[in-house]
User: Fold this.
Amino acid sequence: MAPPFPIFRPVGANGVLVELGDKISDAAAAAVTDLETALRRQPFEGFAETVPGYVNLLVLFDPLATDHGTVETTLRALLTQPGQPRHDGRRRDVEICYDPDLAPDIARVAAATGLTPDSVAAAHLNGDFRVVMYGFAPGYAYMSGVPQALQLPRKPAAVRGIPKGSVLIAGPQCIVTTLTMPTGWWIIGRSPTEILTADPSRPFLLDVGDTVQFRRIDRATFEAKNRG
Amino acid sequence: MSATPFNSGGSIVRRSRRKTVAEATFRVTHAGPHVTIQDGGRFGLMRFGVPASGPMDRGAFAIANAALGNPLGHPGIEISQGGLNLECVSGCVTMGIAGGGFVVETPTTRAPSWLVLTIQPGERLTIRPGLWGSWTYVTFAGHLQAQAWLGSRATHGPSGFGGGRLKTGDSVVIGSATSRPDLLGPLPLPVSARPRQDVRVVLGPQDRFFDAESIATLLSYPFALTDAYDRMGVRLSGPALTPHGPLDMPSEAIMRGSVQVNGDGVATVLLADHQTTGGYPKIATLLADDLDGFVQLRSRDRVMFRAVSPQAAIAATRTRAAAQARFLAAMTTRRRS
Assistant:
């Protein structure tokens, strides 16, 4: 039986949710970024913005200019358009220091996974990370690709005041935080790489669909960059 | 800053500058929680985790700006039920005040929060909650000096990015401040600015995760706003709306007006500073038009949800936009004549 996707669901007076799957997978994420890419290259009249999720894309529009039905027809045509250019994400480097005081949970992650802290770091550096969506707070890019050996459920309760730049993992997901915020994820390192770049021409370092390579740096390098 | 080397002869330059660039300065003598600088909002960045923010009651904010002939998204101050007291330290500026049933007091006036007034140096302005409403707005015939973030001065509450929260002791500076005696007086209060207890929703996008009984409950029982109410959202109290099926739904977009239901059946309506994605099912989505009236409800006020079709939602939105345009145009014309 052919999968029922895409499914179009109206959202309020100004949105259509396009479901492209129901299980988290690389294929579903790629379908979401492909549709978003196509839409940004060929925006319809009244197009407002898109918000990618793991398996679907919210398409917002100006209800004075168009409506749910017209938007659905446009999106269906876009999805079946032959030779649609695929999104090819860029590769981004994110630096990380795994020193124990910057990685307060690395020992617990090691204990829970039967690894040493150093092999947790090595496994993390080997991960195949891809930005799937943003959420929670400005610049919080959710990356898939945490290696199976490091996948743990989140902690039962959130811990407050986790500093900006913390590198967190939970299940298959990884995040570099941009604000001091509570988190129930495992903190395995700290990064001096600014996701909120303060560059008006490209305010966010990472885009949905980008691949991310973590690069290990030593403490001296971290301190030097974190100051600057 | 060392101004010393330029002191001799510099005073002439500074005096002539004051004539062309009038500045008004206020001291914040009291600011309740959730008093922030806002503009029309920061759009197009939800895909990076950034909601639009901007005023909770967008209609009232637009009126406060239209009253001064400002662009509708001109930066102003959003005031919560915590209230705001300002003291004019220097300069003189005309201000628009609109939104909710707040009380505005100056040495010469005590009026409801729908008016245009001018504040002189040494005068105090007190804005405090009255009989109804949760939010009111102050706009200026001039430029409110505030930090911009990603092209907007709207404050994103959780991060504090943008214009920021006002605190007791802060200074508020208005550049190019002007006095507009031609604009003074009360402002019309449109019906749409009243608190709205009958709120229209489009069901979904995850109404299928709820059985028919839960949908019927949502649409036929009153819910109440709780104290868990801020710019990110408001938790409701009422009958449980227990979702069936998977609770580990893959995270997806949330929007302003989403009615999200968590695992224990409690509904939350997401508002101006909402998270942009989340993993809880959304049983319904409020019409953006009804949000202005919804946010003017207070904790413990009751609300009923009424389902409309997507087509009816579009039609209602267009009708309201036309009515609002007529209202703003009539206001501008009347005040100009």
